[in-house]
C-alpha cells in the first residue's frame, strides 16, 4: 500500500472469516474497533504526516504472527539495501558424518567477530559470533579423536572472547586457556572421551552477556561407527536477545543489562534471527523420510519445551545422551540452557510443520521455524475434506 505524504488515508477492514479481528497502524496512532461476524466492516482514518515504511496489522494476540500484517509506504521512500550482515545459521550445515573411520588427529579453527547483523525486517543487532554466524558452526568429530583448537579474535573486535566446549575434559572446557584479546590467537588440544551432542559457548565475563549476544554452538562427538543413517539432518539452536527496545521496534536494537539480569528477553530466535527458519532458509523433507534434528539451547537463561506441531518424535535422545536408550513416541522434550537433544521422526503426511518452544507465548517474540513436507501420504495418517485455514496459526 503506497500513499503520498501528508494525505488523509482511509483503510476499511472487511471480516471474511467471522473471527474477531481489528486493524492498527501504530506509527500513526490509528486503531479500529474489534469486529466479528462474517462480512462485518470497520474503517480507520488518519493523516500520513511522515514519510517511511510502516506496518499495519491485526493486534489480537497471534494474528500478526499468523500473517495478518502488511506494509504502508508513505511518500517517495527509496528502497534501501541493508548493509547488515546475515548472521543466521543454515540448518542444513551439519558437517560430514564420521562413518566407519578410526580416531585421528584434527584441527578446529574458529574466529570470533563482532558484527551488526540482521535481526528481522527493519531491525539489526550488534552480534558477537563464532565465524560470523549464530549459532557458530556445527562441529562433528569422533570418539577418540585428538583435536587441536585454534581460537582467533578478529583485530576489529572490542572485547576479549573465549570458548568453553562442554565436550572437553579440562579447565573451563578450554575457556581457562583461550581468553583471547583482539588480533590474537590461542590454542589447546583435547581428546574426545565421551560421545554425545554438546554445546559450546564463550566463557568470558560477563559470560551470560557473551552467550546472549550469539556466542554459542554445538559439537557432535559421534560414537565408533557413527550414527545410524537418516534421510535428513538439521541443526537448530534456540537463543535469547535482551534489548532496550521493545520487540518489534525498528533500527539497531541495543543490549539491556537490566533485562538480562531479570531474565526477560525481548527477542527469541531459532538460528540467530527472527525469521531464519521461516524466510531465510527452507527446511524440506519428503513423505516416508526420516528426519533428525540436532537441537540445542544457547540460552543463556530459558529452558525450551521443544515441539514440532503435527508430529511425534519417534526417538528422543534425552539430554543428548547417545549411549542411553532413546525415549520413544514423545510429544515435547525439555532442553535446558546449555543443553541439547537429538530427535528423530518419520514424516508421513505432506504439509507445513511448525517448530516451536511449547511455552507458546515465545512464538510472539520470534521463536518459530517451518519444516515443509512434500509427497503422497501412503499411510493414510491424516485426511479431511475441509481445506486448511491459513489463519489457524498452524
From TrEMBL:
Keywords, alphabetical: Copper, Metal-binding, Oxidoreductase, Repeat
E.C. code: 1.7.2.1
Annotated Plastocyanin-like domain residues: 120-223, 271-373
GO-annotated molecular function: copper ion binding; nitrite reductase (NO-forming) activity
Superkingdom: Bacteria
Gene3D superfamilies in UniProt: Cupredoxins - blue copper proteins
Domain EfeO-type cupredoxin-like: 2-74
Binding-site list for Cu cation: 161, 166, 201-202, 210, 215, 358
Catalyzed reactions: nitric oxide + Fe(III)-[cytochrome c] + H2O = Fe(II)-[cytochrome c] + nitrite + 2 H(+)
Cofactor entry: Cu(2+); Cu(+)
InterPro entries hit by this protein: Cu-oxidase-like_N, Cu-oxidase_C, Cu-oxidase_fam, Cu_oxidase_CS, Cupredoxin, EfeO_Cupredoxin, NO2-reductase_Cu
Cofactor binding annotation: Binds 1 Cu(+) ion.
Pfam assignment, any one: Cu-oxidase_3
CDD domains in alphabetical order: Cupredoxin (cd00920), CuRO_1_CuNIR (cd11020), CuRO_2_CuNIR (cd04208)
Signal peptide: none
Family to which this protein belongs: Belongs to the multicopper oxidase family.
Subunit structure as annotated in this protein's UniProt entry: Homotrimer.
NCBIfam families, alphabetized: Cu_nitrite_red
Protein name (database record): Copper-containing nitrite reductase
Amino acid at each position: 500500500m503506497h500513499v503520498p505524504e501528508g494525505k488523509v488515508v482511509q483503510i476499511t477492514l472487511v471480516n471474511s472469516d467471522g473471527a474477531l479481528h481489528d486493524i492498527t497502524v501504530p506509527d500513526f496512532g490509528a486503531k479500529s474497533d474489534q469486529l466479528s461476524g462474517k462480512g462485518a466492516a470497520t474503517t480507520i482514518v488518519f493523516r500520513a504526516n511522515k514519510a517511511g515504511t510502516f506496518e499495519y496489522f491485526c493486534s489480537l494476540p497471534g494474528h500478526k504472527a499468523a500473517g495478518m500484517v502488511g506494509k504502508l509506504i508513505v511518500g517517495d521512500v527509496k528502497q534501501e539495501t541493508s548493509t547488515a550482515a546475515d548472521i543466521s545459521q543454515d540448518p542444513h550445515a551439519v558437517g560430514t558424518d564420521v562413518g566407519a573411520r578410526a580416531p585421528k588427529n584434527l584441527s578446529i579453527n574458529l574466529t570470533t567477530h563482532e558484527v551488526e547483523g540482521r535481526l528481522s525486517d527493519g531491525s539489526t543487532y550488534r552480534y558477537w559470533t563464532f565465524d560470523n554466524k549464530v549459532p557458530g558452526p556445527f562441529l562433528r568429530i569422533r570418539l577418540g579423536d585428538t583435536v587441536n583448537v585454534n581460537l582467533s579474535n578478529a583485530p576489529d573486535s572490542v572485547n576479549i572472547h573465549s570458548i568453553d566446549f562442554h565436550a572437553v575434559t579440562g579447565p573451563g572446557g578450554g575457556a581457562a586457556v583461550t581468553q583471547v584479546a583482539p588480533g590474537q590467537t590461542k590454542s589447546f588440544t583435547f581428546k574426545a572421551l565421551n560421545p554425545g551432542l554438546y554445546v559450546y559457548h564463550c566463557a568470558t565475563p560477563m559470560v551470560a552477556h557473551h552467550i546472549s549476544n550469539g556466542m554459542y554452538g554445538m559439537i557432535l562427538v559421534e560414537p565408533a561407527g557413527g550414527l545410524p543413517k537418516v534421510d535428513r539432518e538439521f541443526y537448530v539452536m534456540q537463543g535469547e536477545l535482551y534489548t532496550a527496545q521493545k520487540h518489534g521496534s525498528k533500527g539497531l536494537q541495543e543490549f539491556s543489562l537490566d533485562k538480562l539480569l531479570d531474565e526477560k528477553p525481548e527477542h527469541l530466535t531459532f538460528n540467530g534471527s527472527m525469521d531464519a527458519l521461516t524466510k531465510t532458509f527452507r527446511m524440506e523433507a519428503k513423505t516416508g523420510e526420516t528426519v533428525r534434528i540436532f537441537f540445542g539451547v544457547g540460552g543463556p537463561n530459558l529452558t525450551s519445551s521443544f515441539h514440532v506441531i503435527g508430529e511425534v518424535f519417534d526417538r528422543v535422545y534425552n539430554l543428548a545422551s547417545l549411549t542411553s536408550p532413546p525415549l520413544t513416541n514423545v510429544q515435547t522434550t525439555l532442553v535446558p540452557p546449555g543443553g541439547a537433544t537429538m530427535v528423530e521422526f518419520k514424516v508421513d503426511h505432506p504439509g507445513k510443520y511448525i517448530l516451536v518452544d511449547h511455552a507458546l507465548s515465545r512464538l510472539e517474540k520470534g521463536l518459530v521455524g517451518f519444516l515443509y513436507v512434500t509427497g503422497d501420504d501412503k499411510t493414510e495418517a491424516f485426511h479431511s475434506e475441509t481445506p486448511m485455514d491459513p489463519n489457524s496459526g498452524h
